[in-house]
Amino acid sequence: MACILKRKAIIVLGFVTAFLLLIIARLTNEVSFPLIFSCFGQTSAKWMPFYTQRQPLRTHYGYMNVRTQEPLQLDCDLCAIISNSGQMSEQKVGFEIDQSSCIWRMNNAPTKGYEEDVGKRTTVRVVSHTSVPLLLKNPEYFFKETNSTVYVIWGPFRNMRKDGSGIVYNMLKKTVDSYPGAKIYVTTEQRMSYCDEVFKKETGKDRIQSGSYLSTGWFTLILAMDACYRIHVYGMINDTYCKSEGFRKVPYHYYEPGRDECDEYFLHENAPYGGHRFITEKKVFADWAKRRTITFTHPNWTLS
Ligand SMILES: *[C@@H]1O[C@H](CO)[C@@H](O)[C@H](O)[C@H]1NC(C)=O
Ligand SMILES: *[C@@H]1O[C@H](CO)[C@@H](O)[C@H](O)[C@H]1NC(C)=O
Ligand SMILES: *[C@@H]1O[C@H](CO)[C@@H](O)[C@H](O)[C@H]1NC(C)=O
């Protein structure tokens, strides 16, 4: 009798121990230490749970999957962010870009036909709500052929609401119904406010009162700073570029002829309403680059 009891106790204890171990494993798995280890910058220095080789993914609660409503998981060592600027033409850095752990592009920037300059791979594509119709012109390409890409769509609440009256959200919902493999995320309303708050904190200006919109580059850098240990930005000009001597005159986008980049920047910076404050944003980026591991090249920024 005593023997049976003892055996029962051992079995129960075994279960309890296994259960506790499971909980501990689960907890440690959710915890990463990006702040401590970002100083080392190397993947090998990253903390790994002892029982698995899987990298702890970072969870980004400001971005929700349209199909599953789950938050975005993304964790990269070196991120390459490729600007859409005409500066990317004839840079021949495609090979270098493709060596990065994660490659970020914006809106409908193509790779086909521009591989030598901008690379082939796309890990994350950050897209403005106004550019969603451009992707939907070629859904087979964006949401089937390149279905390993994560799409992050930013937009104001009126377009992104989930109650049936958010027109952009509705388009995305239809898209994931047709392409179940597509990984499409939308920014939450709280995350949109957070991005506005960062703008106010960094510039002292209220985004709405100053009559401007944040750019896709702004949303891209904010997410990348949370998801990447190191960032290399290609093809973005700095805040004084358009006033510097002998600057390279290029189209606004590398993939289409059109207005000159600097003309576009001045137009937006001075628009009383509805513009992007590209130049102001670049000043803020330069500040961030001084405090974090962010490099800007093609053209090079010098940061002291
Ligand atoms: C991605 O697309 C390929 C074909 O283009 C398909 O074989 C694969 O199943 C898709 N992945 C998912 C997760 O749907
Ligand atoms: C820009 O920076 C890259 C990488 O740091 C360097 O290889 C290149 O020589 C620089 N280009 C110019 C024009 O300074
Ligand atoms: C900004 O770009 C211009 C033109 O490339 C360059 O001369 C200048 O040194 C850059 N300034 C900073 C702070 O990076």
Automatic annotation (TrEMBL):
<comment type="pathway">
    <text>Glycolipid biosynthesis.</text>
</comment>
<dbReference type="GO" id="GO:0009100">
    <property type="term" value="P:glycoprotein metabolic process"/>
</dbReference>
<dbReference type="GO" id="GO:0009311">
    <property type="term" value="P:oligosaccharide metabolic process"/>
</dbReference>
<dbReference type="Pfam" id="PF00777">
    <property type="entry name" value="Glyco_transf_29"/>
</dbReference>
<dbReference type="InterPro" id="IPR001675">
    <property type="entry name" value="Glyco_trans_29"/>
</dbReference>
<keyword id="KW-0735">Signal-anchor</keyword>
<dbReference type="GO" id="GO:0000139">
    <property type="term" value="C:Golgi membrane"/>
</dbReference>
<dbReference type="GO" id="GO:0047290">
    <property type="term" value="F:alpha-N-acetylneuraminyl-2,3-beta-galactosyl-1,3-N-acetyl-galactosaminide 6-alpha-sialyltransferase activity"/>
</dbReference>
<dbReference type="InterPro" id="IPR038578">
    <property type="entry name" value="GT29-like_sf"/>
</dbReference>
<protein>
    <recommendedName>
        <fullName>alpha-N-acetylneuraminyl-2,3-beta-galactosyl-1,3-N-acetylgalactosaminide6-alpha-sialyltransferase</fullName>
        <ecNumber>2.4.3.7</ecNumber>
    </recommendedName>
</protein>
<keyword id="KW-0325">Glycoprotein</keyword>
<comment type="similarity">
    <text>Belongs to the glycosyltransferase 29 family.</text>
</comment>
<dbReference type="GO" id="GO:0006677">
    <property type="term" value="P:glycosylceramide metabolic process"/>
</dbReference>
<keyword id="KW-0333">Golgi apparatus</keyword>
<comment type="pathway">
    <text>Protein modification; protein glycosylation.</text>
</comment>
<keyword id="KW-0443">Lipid metabolism</keyword>
<keyword id="KW-0812">Transmembrane</keyword>
<keyword id="KW-0328">Glycosyltransferase</keyword>
<keyword id="KW-0472">Membrane</keyword>
<dbReference type="GO" id="GO:0005654">
    <property type="term" value="C:nucleoplasm"/>
</dbReference>
<keyword id="KW-1133">Transmembrane helix</keyword>
<keyword id="KW-0730">Sialic acid</keyword>
<keyword id="KW-1015">Disulfide bond</keyword>
<dbReference type="GO" id="GO:0001665">
    <property type="term" value="F:alpha-N-acetylgalactosaminide alpha-2,6-sialyltransferase activity"/>
</dbReference>
<keyword id="KW-0808">Transferase</keyword>
<dbReference type="GO" id="GO:0001574">
    <property type="term" value="P:ganglioside biosynthetic process"/>
</dbReference>
